[in-house]
Each structure stands twice: as C-alpha cells, then as structure tokens.
Write a structure and sequence with these properties.
Largest sheet of chain A: 2 strands, parallel
Structural class of chain B: alpha/beta
Order of helices and strands of chain B: EEEHEEHEHHHHEHEHEEHH
Distance between the termini of chain A: 15 Å
CATH class of the largest domain in chain B: Alpha Beta
Strand content of chain A: under 5%
CATH architecture of the largest domain in chain B: 3-Layer(aba) Sandwich
CATH topology of the largest domain in chain B: Rossmann fold
Distance between the termini of chain B: 29 Å
Structural class of chain A: mainly alpha
Number of helices of chain B: 10
Order of helices and strands of chain A: EHHHHHHHHHHHHHHHE
Oligomer: heterodimer
Shape of chain A: globular
Helix content of chain A: 55-70%
Largest sheet of chain B: 6 strands, mixed
Strand content of chain B: 15-25%
CATH superfamily of the largest domain in chain B: P-loop containing nucleotide triphosphate hydrolases
Strand order of the largest sheet of chain A: 1-2
Largest interface: A-B, 38 and 54 residues
Number of domains of chain B: 2
Number of strands of chain B: 10
Number of helices of chain A: 15
Radius of gyration of chain A: 22 Å
C-alpha cells in the first residue's frame, strides 16, 4: 500500500496515467474495432449520458425519478421533428432539445417539492407511462406521426471534423456517431462534475441526507430541486437526440422511450454506483457488454449454458443478464465504483490536503 | 449577573411576543413572550413537553405560529422563508442531531457555510470562481473543526462517529455560517459529565470569539445556571419565570414545576 498526497507530483502522475489509458481506449475503439463494436460503444455512451443525468437527481439529490425515459423521448422527438419538418441542421437540435427538456424538467420538479420517496416515484412513473401515450395521441399525429414514429432522421452528409478527416459510408457514419457521442459524454461529465463539486453540489447531497437541516443551513430547497431536475432533464434529452441521430428512427415504443428506458438508466446508475461521478460510466459499459454478450446465448448453446438452459425454447439471454446483475449487486452493494474504490484503497491511498489556514492538523 | 452587566439601553436582538402554536387541539405554546439582548446567553428551561423545542423551531422557521410575532434585529422573522434565516445571521444546532451522514465532517461544515458562499447553478457549471470559493470555504471549515478538536477526523464520514463528537460537529457546522445569533437545542443531552463541563466552556468561549448571542435550551440545570446571563423558565407552553439564573432557580413556581411540589 502506497500513500500519495493529494496534489503531489506522484498524484498528478497517477492521474495523468489514468487519463492516458482512457484516451488510448477511446481512440482504439473506432480505429481498431469492427463497426458493430463501435456501435455498441456509442450505444453505451448514450446510456451513460442518460444514467448520469438520472444520477444528478436520484444519486446525488435523492429525488426518485422513474420518468427519465420521457426526457429521453422529448430529446429524440425534438430532434426528429426539427430535422424532418423544419429542415434544421442536426447539430442545432441538441440546443433546442436541451432547452425544451430543461423547461419540462423544471415543471416535473414541482411535485418533488411536496412529495417524497415512493410517492414521488409514482408521479414520475406516471410521466414515463404518459409520454408514449401522448406521442401516439391522434390529435398530436400532425407533429409526431403517431404510432409509426419518424424515420430517416440523420445527417444528410457526415460533417467533417478537423481531426477525423472525411468519413464515408456506413462505417464512416458509425465512427462519426461514436465521436459525437463521446464529445457529448465528456460535456455531460464536465457539467455533472462542475455541479457536484461546488457549493451547489454540496447542497444537493445535503438535501438527500437531511432536507430540514439543509434548509436551516440556507439551502433554498425549491430553487435547488427545480434546477437540478431541469439540468437532469436537459442532459437526458441530449442522450435522446444522440440515440435518434444514431439509429435514424424514433417511435413511441422505441428503445428507451418507454418505461423500460427509465429502468435501464436506473439499473446502470445503481450497478455502477449511485451518487458517484464514475458510477454511470462503469455501469453503462458493463451493462452494454453484458447485454450484448448474453444476447448471443441461444438455447442451443453448447457447454454450461446449453446444459442449464437447453430444456427451454426461450432464449436464456434476459435471465442470464438478470442473474449477472444480481450477482454484481451482491458482490458490490455500493455499485462497481464502490467496489473498485475499496480494492484500489488497498494499493494506493490518496491523502487529502488538510483543510485550514491557521493550525496544522494532526493525525497523519 | 445584573441588568447593568450588559448595556440595557441597547435594543433587543430577539423579541418574541405572544407566540401561540397549536398542533391539532394541543396548545404547544401559549402566548409566549421574552426578549434577548445582544451578547447574552439566554437559557430556556422547563420540564419535558414545556414547549422549548417548539419555540426553537418557531425561531428557525420550521413551525409557523398561529399568532404572535418574532422580531430579530428589527426584522419580522415570521415573514422570512426558512432558508433565509441563515443569511440573516441565525444558526442552530439540533437536539437529536441533523447532520449529513454520508458527508465527511469537513463537508458537513462546508454545507454549514452555505450562506457564506455564492456559487450557484450557472457558475458551478461554467466553473467561474467555484474553485476559489471551494478553497476559501474549505479552509474556513477546516479551521473551525480544528478549533473544536475535530481536526484529525475531518475526512471521516459523519456516520458512525460517537455522539459527543457529532454534537461538537453540530456546533462547528452552525458556526460556519458566521452567525450573530446561535440557537442551541439541548447541546448537553446524551453527553458524559466531563463532556458537559467542557461544553459549557466551549459555549462561553465561542460567544466571546464570534461575538455571539446565544439561546440555549437545556435540561442540564447546573450548566444553564453557570453560563447563562438570563434565564426563561417555561411550563405547558407558558413562561412561568424570567430573570437572572439565581432568581429563576429560587422562584417557587420553577421549583414546583420541576419537583411537582404541591403547595
């Protein structure tokens, strides 16, 4: 076990090494891997952004929301409608979607000012259930195209980004979608990090831990909850836009637009580690990997899986995915990030800088 | 302690008059009136259920009284929302601890300093001045923790630490708001004898150092009588006696309320 002082050269070296490793993987994926793999990573990035947005509201502030699939859908539909009906360039729809979702998110925060816990969960559940129904509503069909949804939502031509150079064809689109998703992931991460590691972020956790005490310390509960819901909705809408641009399609029953989407975001957040900045990232990568791996398991598989599940006509994929997630939660009750932190503390301990000006702190 | 000890010409810092609070049919406070002068330590005593904590929660805007007025430094407190109380310079500690258990001691105190910062939603996203403010609040909070003897524990989560330690953390967190007026709700409850003595000294010394006025709700009679300048005794939501510690201590009505002596 090594002790490293926060802010020391060794600490900076460790951090630089970490960033370099991540950068290596991030570049490795689109340059060395197959198009379908690249697509899986893009899918993971979309889910990570959505889970990060949920994490702000639920993980940090403790306000249960099962309605985030609606924000995802708002993003997707905003992009689809603006591109197809109004001829917007796809890039600008991110801004529009974020603004619209921010406003809707602030409105949905209003019940959270009065009700808590399981009751708030029910209200947001209603939002998740309502959204697809609303989209399919006959009187809104002029806008949403009803149950059949909107298709061919995409960049007409792949934009040329300086470093990437010119990308062409289906493979080129996958690479571009990957980088677009990555840039938005970084932006989302930085927004979340900025919010969390500030006076505003401390007031979020204070609300989660003890609302009455937070108010006594001067935290304006109303404004804080409304803003964090708004920010969360806006980020989740970015994930929705991204998903729609990547697949080119959005339908009321589409992936992550229904209640199922909210459950997936929740799952990723909890598996990765609720209330941690890296939780959704780890959770999202693990979830997408597990989902794609288990999907390949047919009932005719050989070996252990064939032996265990061969009797069934159904694919065991969902069951195995579920089991794997249960095992993860059993081994890492505070999420994978909690587990990683615990193991990492056996190797390196980062000693925080003592706080204070006058007197030296003792105890090290 | 006589009235001449503090300049009686100065206005009252807190003026409570005719405050009535009812929960359903139960009258928790019944037309309570008292005043605190700047710089005083005012003890609020009374048997269990006398309404001390209710009074407390009225001043910190958790309960809304059905009638009466509370004036702090010339301002009508009852028209101020709960989260503005800290900005006016009023801080409090809680009887049964209301800490943020998942946060470290340092972060707890930094939340206590919330009213001292100004980085909000937009500036935290854009990171304008956030790092600087974090450093300032962090140092200020660290100094307070060190002063209250909690320095070595500052990076530990509040969860799972001994009760006496957490009581001191409550005081540090309240002081972080740089209050003028500190409300302490039974700070000695659950402490050992030695800890109670130490607490009395702490209250007196922080009063001097931070130029505080203190409202102290306490069961621990010897501590209240030792450190208070002024004592208000309550029973069944009413004031039954008020004055210097020695006066209140010997008031037959107070003796009766505590011992239940039948006249």
């Amino acid at each position: 076990m090594v002790k490293v002082n926060q802010g020391s050269p060794q600490h900076w070296a460790l951090r630089t090494l970490g960033v370099a490793l991540i950068a290596l993987v991030v570049v490795w994926v689109p340059t060395q891997m197959s198009t379908s793999r690249i697509g899986q990573f893009s899918d993971a990035f979309v889910l990570i952004i959505a889970a990060m947005s949920l994490n702000l509201v639920l993980g940090f502030t403790g306000q249960i929301s099962i309605g985030h699939s609606a924000f995802f859908g708002i993003g997707g539909y905003t992009a689809a409608i603006l591109i197809k009906d109004h001829g917007w360039s796809p890039g600008y729809t991110f801004y529009a979607a974020a603004v619209i979702a921010f406003v809707v998110g602030c409105l949905i925060a209003l019940p959270a000012l009065r009700i808590k816990g399981i009751y708030l969960a029910l209200v947001t559940l209603a939002v998740a259930v309502l959204f697809p129904t609303l989209v399919k509503w006959k009187k809104l069909a002029w806008l949403t195209d009803g149950a059949k949804g909107i298709d061919s939502v995409r960049y007409d031509e792949i934009p040329v980004w300086p470093i990437l150079g010119e990308l062409k064809g289906r493979d080129g689109r996958a690479v571009f979608a990957y980088w677009l998703a990555f840039v938005l992931l970084v932006i989302t991460y930085l927004v979340c990090r900025g919010l969390v590691k500030s006076r505003f972020g401390r007031s979020l956790v204070a609300i989660r831990d003890n609302e009455t005490a937070a108010a006594v310390m001067g935290v304006n509960l109303t404004v804080t909850k409304v803003l964090v819901f708004g920010a969360s909705a806006a980020l989740c809408a970015l994930a929705g836009v991204l998903s729609t641009l990547r697949t080119g399609v959005i339908t009321p029953e589409g992936q992550y637009v229904t209640l199922l989407g909210s459950i997936v975001f929740l799952l990723i957040m909890v598996v990765g580690g609720a209330g941690t900045l890296w939780g959704p990232i780890v959770g999202g990568l693990v979830y997408v990997w597990l989902d794609n791996t288990t999907r390949g398991f047919g009932s005719e598989s050989d070996g252990v899986i064939g032996f265990l599940f061969g009797w069934s006509d159904q694919s065991p994929a969902t069951l195995i995915l579920g089991l794997a997630l249960v095992i993860i939660m059993f081994a890492a009750p505070y999420g994978l990030v909690g587990l990683i932190k615990r193991l990492w503390a056996k190797v390196v301990i980062v000693v925080p800088k003592p706080a204070g000006t006058s007197l030296p702190t003792t105890g090290h | 302690m006589s009235e001449t000890a503090s300049p009686s010409s100065r206005e009252n810092l807190l003026d409570v008059s005719g405050v009535t609070v009812t929960f359903g049919g139960i009258v928790a406070l019944d037309g309570l009136s008292f005043a605190i002068k700047p710089g005083q330590i005012c003890g609020l005593i009374g048997p269990n259920g006398a309404g001390k904590t209710t009074m407390f929660n009225v001043v910190s805007r958790i309960y809304q009284p059905s009638s009466g007025s509370v004036v702090f430094d010339g301002k009508d407190l009852l028209s101020v929302p709960a989260h503005e109380i800290a900005h006016l310079g009023i801080a409090r500690t809680f009887q049964n601890l209301a800490l943020f258990p998942t946060m470290s001691l340092l972060e707890n105190v930094m939340v206590g300093a919330h009213s001292q910062g100004k980085i909000g939603f937009v500036r935290s996203i854009l990171r304008i001045g956030a790092a600087r403010e974090n450093r300032e609040l962090r140092d200020w909070s660290g100094d307070l923790l060190t002063q209250l003897g909690l320095g070595p524990l500052m990076f530990r989560p509040a969860m799972g630490l001994p009760f006496g330690t957490l009581k001191r953390l409550e005081i540090a967190r309240a002081l972080a708001a740089r209050p003028r007026f500190l409300l302490m709700d039974e700070p000695a409850a659950g402490l050992t004898h030695a800890e109670v003595d130490e607490l009395g000294d702490t209250v007196v010394s922080i009063r001097e150092q931070f130029d505080l006025t203190v409202l102290l709700v306490e069961h621990h009679m010897s501590m209240v009588m030792k450190i208070s300048d002024h004592v208000v005794a309550m029973e069944f939501g009413r004031k039954i006696s008020e004055g210097t510690p020695s006066f209140v201590q010997n008031d037959p009505k107070v003796v009766q309320a505590y011992l239940g002596v039948d006249a």
